[in-house]
Design a protein that fits this description.
Shape: elongated
CATH class of the largest domain: Mainly Beta
Number of domains: 3
Number of strands: 16
Distance between the termini: 102 Å
CATH topology of the largest domain: Glucose Permease (Domain IIA)
Structural class: alpha+beta
Length: 332
């Protein structure tokens, strides 16, 4: 395929003649023809050369524009030309007006957001007071610190635009309120968590789901010899194999056969509280097991000194037998 040539007419003795041609590979051939040259000279330019030339041209134009701007400004300063000063002052004034408008819009948006955050803090304060009542605190003891808040700083979008200084002051007050509320809510969380743990460690759950309450705590005739004896727990009569449940969370400290209690499991609940589950047909918990309230630890039986299948349940405080019914009533 022949290149598409475009050239100026050439006459002997005329100046340099430019002949340009595009070839299929995308390059440009520039052929220089002159009577002063012994032979035509060809310059080949690729696309990358052309692109580089355009970039250099643009950079040169930008540099010239910057230089012209600098020269104009320098001339204005040296000659104090009022027309040029007026032109630059107008440009600077427009820029300052735009900056002020942007700053004002930003302050207005921040003020609106500040009002929204104050409303959220107020709602959290109200919620904290309710939780404080549930935890047994006086609401005023856990109210947010409003020192320095000032009138009108409570949860509302400002009617008039705020200055930067006033906005900074309110943000500082809000930050103190958030820190204060975080500390007090953390205290509430600790108290409620501790209270919840204590409740889980108190043996208040029934140790058996199906059965009949058959014997109370206290003095009674011994079922084997009829003599008065202290019954240190309560009994639940139920079918053999009925699951026995932990009355509270704790650690199994005893799982063994006892001559009187038969197969017995004992759980330590902390604070000196322990529970015993006696006369089991099977023991399903081992020493060292951590059990939760309601976990199955054995099955009803008649092992040891027993007249029939039943669960003998005891609660002890520092080794002294207590009436289990007092603890079980808290479950209701």
């Amino acid at each position: 395929m022949r290149p598409n040539l475009s050239a100026r007419a050439y006459r002997p003795g005329s100046p340099i003649i430019y002949v340009q041609a595009w070839v299929p590979e995308g390059t440009m051939n520039i052929i220089l023809v002159s009577g002063r040259l012994p032979a035509p000279k060809t310059i080949i330019l690729s696309r990358s050369h052309i692109a580089a030339g355009c970039i250099v041209l643009l950079l040169t134009l930008f540099a010239l524009a910057a230089l012209l701007n600098y020269a104009t400004l320098r001339y204005a300063v040296e000659t104090r030309d009022p027309r040029i000063f007026s032109l630059f002052s107008g440009v600077m004034r427009d820029e300052m007006d735009n900056s002020r408008a942007y700053l004002r819009d930003s302050l207005d948006a921040m003020s609106t957001r500040l009002g929204e955050l104050q409303a959220q803090v107020l709602r959290l304060d109200t919620l904290g007071e309710r939780v404080a009542r549930l935890a047994g605190f006086r609401p005023q003891d856990l109210a947010l610190d409003r020192e320095g808040a000032g009138a009108g700083s409570v949860a509302s979008v400002p009617a008039a635009p705020l200055s930067f200084g006033e906005l900074a002051r309110r943000l500082d007050v809000l930050a103190r309120q958030v820190d204060d509320g975080s500390d007090k809510l953390g205290l509430l969380d600790s108290v409620l968590t501790l209270d919840n743990i204590k409740k889980k460690l108190v043996p208040s759950a029934l140790p058996i789901k199906t059965g009949i309450f058959s014997s109370v705590f206290g003095w009674r005739p011994d079922p084997f010899n009829g003599r008065p004896s202290l019954h240190e727990g309560i009994d639940f009569t139920s079918a053999r194999g009925t699951p026995i449940l932990a009355a509270a969370a704790g650690v199994v400290v005893t799982s063994e056969y006892h001559p009187q209690y038969g197969n017995m499991v004992e759980i330590d609940h902390g604070n000196g509280l322990t529970t015993r589950y006696a006369h089991c047909s099977r023991r399903l918990a081992r020493v060292g097991d951590v059990v939760m309230k309601g976990a199955i630890i054995g099955e009803v039986g008649s092992s040891g000194r027993a007249t029939g299948p039943h669960l003998h349940f005891e609660v002890r405080q520092n080794g002294v037998a207590k009436n289990p019914a007092r603890f079980l009533r808290t479950a209701g």
